[in-house]
Structures are given as C-alpha cells and as structure tokens.
Amino acid sequence: EETQPAALDIPMERLTVSYSRSSGPGGQNVNKVNSKAEVRFHLASADWIPEATRQTMASMHRNKINRAGELIVSSEESRYQMRNLAICLEKIRTMVTEATEKPKVVSKETTQKLIERVEKMNRERLRQKKIHSTIKQSRKADFD
Amino acid sequence: KERRRGRGRYRGRKCGRGHKGERQRGNRPRLGFEGGQTPFYLAIPKYGFNEGHSRRRQYQPLSLQRLQYLIDLGRVDPTQPIDLTQLTNARGVTVQPLKRDYGVQLVEEGADIFSAKVNIEVQRASELAIATIEKNGGVVTTSFYDPRSLEILCKPVVFFLRGKPIPKRMLPPEDLVRYYTDARNRGYLADPAKVAEARLELAKKYGYVLPDITKDELFKMLSTRKDPRQIFFGLAPGWIVNMADKKILKPTDEGLLKYYSS
C-alpha cells in the first residue's frame, strides 16, 4: 500500500456508503446484521483521481459502472461493517494503482538481445544434435 | 426421576442396546480401536504443535460488545481511565494469573454497535478494535504486566492487606518488546509521535474522520497514561497502603527511592 506517497487519500465526503445485509449462510446473525458495505462514487467528477487514470479505470471496470456513471464497489467478506468498508477502500486503491501503472516498454536493444539469445540456443541445440548423430553413426558396424 | 427408568414398550425390550454382539453385551473395544488396523492416532507421526502449550501466554478476550454492555449498565465508568482493576471490580472479565494469563485482549465482536468514548488500557488489541475505539473518540494503549504485577492489579485489596510495598512493574521479555514498542499496536513503550501517525493511518485505512481529542473536554482524562514502572494510577512503586488506618506510607531512604524510581 505504501509504494505510492502514503496510501492514497480517499475523501470520504465524495463517496456514498451504504450498508445492507449480506448473503450466504449464517442463521440469525446474517439475517439481522448489516455487514455488507457498498461504496459508490461518480467516476467522471472524481477530482482526487488524475484524469488519465479516470479514463483507464472507466475502460477497465466498465462492468462495474452503472448508467448514471457511478463506480460501484462492494464487499461482504468480513463479519464487520468497518472491515468491509476498509476492504472496499482497499479495492478502490488497487484499481487506481493498476490504472496508473504504465505498460512496460521493452527497449529495442533488449528485444534484439532476446531474439539473439533464442537463435543462439537453437544453433547450439542443432550442433549438439549433429554431434550426437555422428556418435551413434560411428557405432554402426557397416562393412562393405 | 421418571425419565431414568427403562420400562414400558418404548424404552423397554432391548433398552436401546441393539441386537446381540458386543454392543448389547457392553464389551465394545476402547475408543480409537479400528478392528486391528493401525488406528489414526498411532499412524500419524508426532509433531510439536502443542509442545509447551501449557507454558504459553494466554490473554482473556474482551469483546467490544461486552465492554459496551458494561458501560451501558453502569458497571464500568467511561469518565475514568479503564484499567484491568476497573474491569475486574466490575466483574466484567475474570483473569487467572496463576493459569499463565498475562492479561486481557480486545476482540472485535460488537465493533458495529460500539459507541463509547473511553480511555482503555489492555494487554493486546486487534487492529479493528483499536480503529473502532479511536473512531468513537477514545484512546487505546497496550501495556505489559508481569505475573506478579498482574495478580496485584487484579486483587489490590488482598495485596494491600499483606502490608508489603508496591513492587515496580517489570519490563516485557525479549519477544514482547517488539510488540510493545510498535506504534501500530499502540504499545506503551512506543514513540508518541509515531502513535499519532499510526492513528491517522488507521483512519485513512478504515475510512473515518479521526476526531480531534485535543479539543475534547475530557482530553486530560483521555491522555492519562501510566508510567512503565507503575502498577496503579495514583500510587507509585515503593509505597505501602495501610487499609486499617487509611494511610499511605512512602519510603524516605535514598537507596530505596533510587531503586524504586529506576
């Protein structure tokens, strides 16, 4: 989390948090206790995320954005509301991190080196194969 | 009374023992016997999972739900710093120092319902529990009590009746020093600046606004902390409490004062 300048500061006032009852087994406790946390925020107007990241997020998480343009993140993994909220915030942070990272640009020299390595391996393999072949041939007793 | 008797059509005849064989005749082999096959409990090799389990440190769990219950019933006073003595007097927890109990640990059960501003001092606390208490404007501290100090803390009156001077609290052993010097656990030996930082960090992680306790009216009470060598809040090590005459005797000898204030 601390790879960026201290964990990303998410302004809580801009988010809409709602709690509801979780699904799954659990008897009376799961029926009564509101432990599923859902966080929504309007992605296009979120100034606390850089513009470019916002675009990437919109395309990456297309399925999590509703018609009104709000990104929805929910969590019902833990028994406690607070922990589920923390998990939602963590998910948002990972989304932002993933969207911010640039694709790895492999330089020309490195690609050339890699191709050369592969070719060298193949040449060596064929050379060894030929040597092995001559050894096997020399064991044949082929008299005229 | 009536239920014990096995007479009558339902509980009579074979009396729930089945038909012939070892079952009816009461001659079944011992528990774990598998008819001659090497039983499970002998086939599996031994490994020291439970080795020394009786010497491990134990901490009595205290859930936030229980704490809220005690505060609501008025058994524990939230306007004073809450200590193990307060909890024991309120019969909220029962600690057995002789059974390798090293104190009380805060557990998250009831985190969603908790809403009380308290200054709590426990021996261990989980992250969510710390976050919940700080969210409601309270203060958590974790501190170490060696078994002798723990016994004195849990049963102060019995100790005072002995007439011996209050001993100084020992510092934690090597493996616990790390735990108590860590700001994330709110250890009593940790740097206060780092503790403040850790509070902010937790607030960001759990998504709540950290209430400013300096502007609180009970700030003085909330910030009272014990000295690392002190066992009780008002008393220092070396003093003798006289229950009969309701007096406190303090040492005047230089050597003793030096020892007790080290």
Estimate the strand proportion of chain A.
Answer: 5-15%
Structural class of chain B: alpha/beta
Q: Which stretches of chain A of 5+ consecutive residues score pLDDT under 50?
A: 1-5
Gross morphology of chain A: elongated
DSSP strand count of chain A: 3
Tell me about the largest β-sheet of chain A. Answer: 3 strands, antiparallel
> How many H/I helical runs of chain A?
4
Count of alpha and pi helical runs of chain B: 11
Q: How do the SSEs of chain B run, as a string of H and E?
A: HHEHHEEEHEHHHHHEEH
Oligomerization status of the protein chains:
heterodimer
Secondary structure: helix percent of chain B: 25-40%
- Distance from first to last alpha carbon of chain A: 78 Å
Helix share, percent of chain A = 40-55%
Lateral strand order in the biggest sheet of chain A: 1-2-3
Rg from alpha-carbon coordinates of chain A? 29 Å
- Major sheet of chain B: 3 strands, parallel
Strand order of the largest sheet of chain B: 1-2-4
Family (chain A): Belongs to the prokaryotic/mitochondrial release factor family. Mitochondrion-specific ribosomal protein mL62 subfamily.
GO molecular function, one term (chain A): peptidyl-tRNA hydrolase activity
Subcellular location (chain A): Mitochondrion
Pfam family, one (chain A): RF-1
Please write out the topology.
The complex is a heterodimer of chains A (144) and B (262).
Chain A: E1 16-20, H1 27-32, E2 36-42, H2 51-60, E3 70-75, H3 81-100, H4 108-138
Antiparallel strand pairs in A: 1-2, 2-3
Chain B: H1 21-25, H2 40-43, E1 58-63, H3 64-73, H4 84-89, E2 101-107, E3 119-122, E4 124-125, H5 127-135, E5 139-142, H6 147-154, H7 156-162, H8 174-180, H9 192-206, H10 219-222, E6 240-242, E7 247-249, H11 254-260
Parallel strand pairs in B: 1-2, 2-4, 3-5
Antiparallel strand pairs in B: 6-7
Helix pairs in contact in B: 5-9, 6-7
